[in-house]
Amino acid sequence: MKETRREAMKRVLTFGVFDYFHLGHLRLFKQCKEYGDYLIVAVQNDDSILKFKPNANTLYSTIERVEMIESLRIVDKVIIYDVINIATLMKIDFDVLALGEDHHGQRFDIAKTWCVEHDKDVIRLKRTPGICSTNIKGNFN
Q1: What is the pTM of this model?
Q2: What is the C-alpha separation between 89 and 135, in angstroms, rounded?
Q3: Which domains does the chain have, with CATH numbers?
Q4: Which residue pairs, CB below 8 angstroms and at least 24 apart, start in 32-36?
Q5: Of the candidates 39, 49, 34, which has an alpha carbon nearest to the alpha carbon of residue 14?
Q6: Residues 126, 128, 131, CA angle at the centre, nearest 5°?
């Protein structure tokens, strides 16, 4: 039986806020594409950001961040998410979960465990040295 392109395609999923978009984000997306040929970028919803970080000061709205990420040729699909959890993961068709070096904590541990239990690969990607949204944000405040 001949395998279709969709069956052979590896879909990579990564999560983030992606406010103050910078070269580190772009390089993260490039690293993701080394593990698959279809990149799904999940952008966190404004309301959820404020729920976890009440003092967060975002530069762009959710819709504006989605628009920026969608305009990148390297990105194949952009979705909006509230929180990384099993319910969120179950709604997304992906093969590889790409986490950044800074993605640590219980919610990421739960996501990794779920992925392993459901035959999905989990990879850790390196940050771009010297580039950090928090530092960039500090320069504007």
Answers
A1: 0.84
A2: 30
A3: 5-140 (3.40.50.620)
A4: 32/96, 32/98, 32/125, 33/74, 35/10, 35/96, 35/98, 35/121, 35/123, 36/9, 36/10, 36/11, 36/12, 36/95, 36/96
A5: 39
A6: 140
- Altogether, the residues listed in the chain come to a count of 141
- Residue whose token pair is 């580039």: 131
Q: What is the pLDDT along the chain (141 residues), one digit of tens a residue?
A: 444 445 568 999 999 989 888 888 999 999 999 999 999 999 999 877 767 776 777 789 999 999 999 999 999 999 999 999 999 999 999 999 999 887 888 889 999 999 999 999 999 998 765 566 555 555 555
Asked if residues 81 and 43 have their Cβ atoms less than 8 Å apart, the reply is: yes
Q: Which H, E and C letters describe 4-37, residue by residue?
A: CHHHHCCEEEEEECCCCCCHHHHHHHHHHHCCCC
Which of 87, 85, 77 lies closest to 36, judged by CA?
77
